[in-house]
Design brief:
- This protein is mainly alpha-helical.
- The protein has one domain.
- It contains 12 helices and no strands.
- Helix 7 packs antiparallel against helix 12.
- The longest helix has 25 residues.
- 47% of the residues are buried.
Length: 249
């Protein structure tokens, strides 16, 4: 697809959507793929839309992780989750052609919505449970991410249940998204979806995202922990509804 064929109004609308997605990413650490891919897929094929989001997603996750570098010792402690996250993303990408993504999206969306709307006071995960639950969540996130490109919901639910402080929550998500995203980006390049033209457009698309992230990061400092958890709940519901829509579409 030639991006120069898009009219100025469409390009401007995409720029605003990417800016707002960056704000959401800066505040809560998640939700960017939902905004970017959904907006881009309205004017181009879903595969190209995912490829267009490659640089904004990767760069935003790297920046998000770097901004929380003082928490790296704690983040590295989540390696039992990240190893299966990476491995199962590879597996998920391989079985993408044999499993209907709509079925996966419908099931995942329903689970996310049910969890978000029925939880009371945000359930807690006991530290002793992290030994087995972390790798399980990483595996589920990787598998679903490889099949549907959405790594976030299992991680959001797990980290939310751990009651992590927001300043650790956000860079930890960023680190997980980097780990899970690399196999997807490699697959896009291998299958010639991430062409030089798409990559250049993706670099340009990263500019409004980074601007929005900086604004969102500043807003996050003014958000209380309680309000932050409510925001995460809202994001989970919206992501769940979007997944259900994709499953039924």
């Amino acid at each position: 697809m030639a991006f120069l064929d898009l009219d100025p109004m469409t390009l401007a609308a995409l720029g605003v959507a990417f800016l707002l997605g960056g704000v959401l990413k800066g505040v809560a650490g998640a939700g960017l793929p939902m905004v970017l891919v959904s907006a881009a897929a309205s004017v181009m094929s879903p595969a190209v839309a995912v490829a267009l989001a490659t640089v904004p997603l990767f760069s935003s996750n790297v920046v998000q992780t770097w901004q929380g570098r003082r928490y790296w010792p704690q983040i590295l402690g989540f390696w039992p989750l990240m190893v299966p996250l990476f491995a199962l993303t590879v597996v998920g990408a391989r079985i993408l052609v044999t499993v209907d993504p709509k079925i996966i999206a419908l099931i995942l969306g329903s689970v996310v919505i049910l969890f978000s709307l029925t939880r009371s006071g945000n359930p807690r995960v006991a530290p002793a449970s992290m030994t087995w639950l972390g790798p399980l969540v990483g595996s589920l996130s990787g598998l679903l991410g490889g099949v549907s490109s959405f790594h976030g919901p299992p991680l959001l639910m797990y980290f939310s249940a751990l009651r992590l402080p927001k300043d650790l929550f956000v860079p930890l998500l960023g680190a997980c998204f980097v780990v899970g995203g690399l196999p997807l980006y490699a697959s896009l390049a291998y299958h010639h979806v991430l062409t030089p033209e798409v990559f250049l457009a993706s670099v340009v698309a990263a500019v409004p995202v980074q601007l929005g992230m900086e604004l969102g990061r500043r807003l996050r400092g003014r958000v209380s922990e309680q309000a932050f958890r409510k925001l995460v709940t809202v994001i989970l519901v919206v992501i769940g509804l979007n997944l259900v829509r994709r499953g039924l579409g």
